[in-house]
């Protein structure tokens, strides 16, 4: 049996671009021959609804970089969340430095009113200008999401304290200044907080046990004789590539991801995921 773990953003699909049909077809073909396809994403489960509804067949999902998972036919399970105390420490640093941050929880994403971050969002637009139309699409998508689909609260920590049923799976920041991002990584990393870069100009803070590598180890206990594959593009995929049997990078992956990988396939937008599965794993062609 094969188990394929696949990142989403930058690997399975790109922002503003339709998912290549070959990727959907590959999931169906893989499941048809009795293998497993597992999405493993930094997104919260509430952010995956549209993608999951677009599939012909359901599949297992590990979300928020391992803070939770959802198996076919079951309810989402949340684990390895951040404590209020850890959130408070991180947010104190972010607010002191006027960083744009948002908090991913088991009920969705919360953040302060977006109007407070106009300066930061404009700086991000400027930073992404060299990407041309793609950069504009990324910011249009992000700003639309922040304004229309997130819950806005004046004081996030006070909100969390008065809603103990809400679990924080990660804190995410977007910052235009690369030096500031690296400074924040130094300031925020601790024994109880794992900090890593993810999408363009983004950095995430999670429970140290909330990693793709740890989540895959837990998942694979159910299939000890299976061969595992991991397909990714970014720094948050390195933990996954370290533990799978076969590491795969899409063509647009960061250099450090390609260096870790046994296979480098086509770019995300060209269906590298589906190409790899059909070329390497599907026996009945």
Could you characterize the architecture of this molecule?
The protein is α/β, with parallel strands linked by helices and 285 residues long. It has 2 domains: 2-79 and 210-280, HAD superfamily/HAD-like (Rossmann fold, 3-Layer(aba) Sandwich), CATH 3.40.50.1000; 84-206, Hypothetical Protein, Haloacid Dehalogenase-like Hydrolase, Chain: A, domain 2 (2-Layer Sandwich). Helices cover 36% and strands 21% of the residues. The strands form 2 sheets. An 8-stranded mixed β-sheet has the order 5-4-3-2-1-12-13-14. A 6-stranded mixed β-sheet has the order 8-7-6-9-11-10, sandwiched between helices. Helix 1 (21-32) packs parallel to helix 11 (272-280). The longest helix has 16 residues, at 133-148. The two termini are 17 Å apart. The model has no long low-confidence stretch (mean pLDDT 93). It comes from Enterococcus quebecensis. Keywords: Hydrolase.
Task: Give a quick precis of the structure.
This protein has helices spanning 21-32, 49-53, 84-96, 118-127, 133-148, 156-162, 178-188, 212-220, 238-243, 255-260, 272-280; strands at residues 2-6, 36-40, 60-63, 68-70, 77-78, 100-105, 108-111, 151-152, 168-174, 194-197, 202-206, 227-232, 246-249, 263-264.
């Amino acid at each position: 049996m094969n188990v394929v773990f696949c990142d989403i953003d930058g690997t399975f699909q790109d922002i503003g671009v339709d998912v290549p049909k070959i990727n959907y077809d590959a999931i169906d073909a893989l499941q048809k021959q009795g293998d497993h396809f597992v999405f493993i994403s930094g997104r919260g489960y509430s952010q995956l609804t549209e993608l999951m509804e677009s599939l012909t067949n359901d599949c297992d999902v590990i979300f928020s970089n391992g803070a939770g998972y959802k198996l076919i036919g079951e309810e989402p399970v949340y684990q390895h969340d951040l404590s209020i105390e850890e959130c408070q420490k991180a947010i104190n640093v972010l607010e002191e430095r006027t960083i744009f941050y948002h908090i991913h929880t088991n009920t969705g994403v919360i953040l302060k009113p977006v109007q407070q971050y106009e300066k930061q969002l404009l700086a991000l637009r400027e930073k992404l200008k060299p990407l041309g139309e793609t950069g504009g699409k990324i910011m249009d998508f992000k700003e639309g999401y922040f304004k229309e689909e997130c819950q806005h609260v004046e004081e996030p920590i006070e909100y969390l304290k008065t809603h103990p049923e809400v679990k924080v799976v990660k804190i995410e920041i977007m910052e235009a200044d690369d030096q500031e991002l690296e400074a924040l990584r130094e300031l925020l990393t601790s024994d109880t907080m794992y900090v890593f870069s993810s999408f363009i100009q983004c950095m995430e803070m999670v429970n140290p046990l909330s990693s793709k590598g740890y989540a895959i180890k837990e998942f694979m206990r159910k299939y000890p004789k299976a061969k595992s594959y991991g397909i990714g593009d970014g720094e948050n995929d390195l933990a996954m590539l370290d533990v799978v049997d076969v590491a795969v990078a899409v063509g647009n992956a960061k250099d450090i991801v390609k260096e870790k990988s046994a296979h480098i396939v086509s770019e995300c937008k060209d269906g590298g995921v589906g190409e790899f599965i059909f070329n390497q794993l599907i026996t009945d062609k």
